[in-house]
Amino acid sequence: MQDPIISIEGLHKVYDSGFTALADVDLEIQRGEIFALLGPNGAGKTTLISAICGLVRQTSGKIAVDGHDTLEDFRKARGMIGLVPQEVSLEPFEKVLNTIRFSRGLFGKPADESHLESILRELSLWDKRDSRTSQLSGGMQRRVLIAKALAHEPEILFLDEPTAGVDVELRKAMWDTVNRLRERGVTIILTTHYIEEAEAMADRIGIISKGRILLVENKKDLMARLGGKQMTIELVEPVDTIPDNLAPFGLGRSEDGHELIYDYDTTADRSGIASLLSAISSEGLKVKDVHTRQSSLEDIFVGLLHEDGAS
């Protein structure tokens, strides 16, 4: 495996108030991957991103961006990073094109109008290039934030809750842009409350709670390891209680008694489904329908936070 593009060791952040925002965080981000960081509000997601980007100084621990220590070699480390913050903050009277020109210049990059035009066209902002940012809709302003983050051609892009409060059309356009960036080799780290986006987009998932990383795993492996299946058996006639002979299966019962619910492990050698259906038949219960549901990433996420006492 190639060296990680971001390496974090023993990261702590304690604020002057005594609040511990990050505690003993170890994390590696691989070059070219899409990494999703999930966690409830106040879990430490934004603090972690801010520490990597040099906006917050860590209390202890080390952060390296492509081998550059973020404290000892800040300019080189920060120059590799584009950041799309959660909050929209733009100079209201500045024109869109000038805004991203200025952002490129801040990183010491030479003028490149063709690159800026390409970014604005890709984000459907070219026809707004001479508009003041205050004249744009909220969704368009968020696109300007992405354009600013990409102006200096970063190798790493941080997206902090990028689609919070935006419409479905813009959300799709933003993820199309993310896919194109990924194809060019840009490493993308995102925080999101839209778990379905992480499930659809990410290569790996990290879950953070109370400033600690609970888990980092390949999305497919995580789903296979923790994602069980649930089978719902719809009965022709309802049952008031689950028969004693079915007790070993650990069944649940719907409120109206028309459904029996069976949770099973997809990785086990035997699911127990055949034995269960045979036992149901032996009890004289008639089955109307059977359907299954795979656990989603959201189920896994909620379960892990529950174990950690975060919810």
Automatic annotation (TrEMBL):
Keyword Endoplasmic reticulum: no
Superkingdom of this protein's organism: Bacteria
Domain ABC transporter positions: 6-235
SUPFAM superfamilies for this protein: P-loop containing nucleoside triphosphate hydrolases (SSF52540)
Gene Ontology molecular function, alphabetical: ATP binding; ATP hydrolysis activity
Keyword Transport: yes
Keywords: ATP-binding, Nucleotide-binding, Transport
Coiled coil: none
Pfam families referenced in this protein's UniProt entry, alphabetically: ABC_tran
InterPro entries (alphabetical): AAA+_ATPase, ABC_transporter-like_ATP-bd, ABC_transporter-like_CS, ABC_transporter_ATP-binding, P-loop_NTPase
Family: Belongs to the ABC transporter superfamily.
PANTHER family in the cross-refs: ABC TRANSPORTER ATP-BINDING PROTEIN
Record-given protein name: Multidrug ABC transporter ATP-binding protein
Organism: Notoacmeibacter marinus
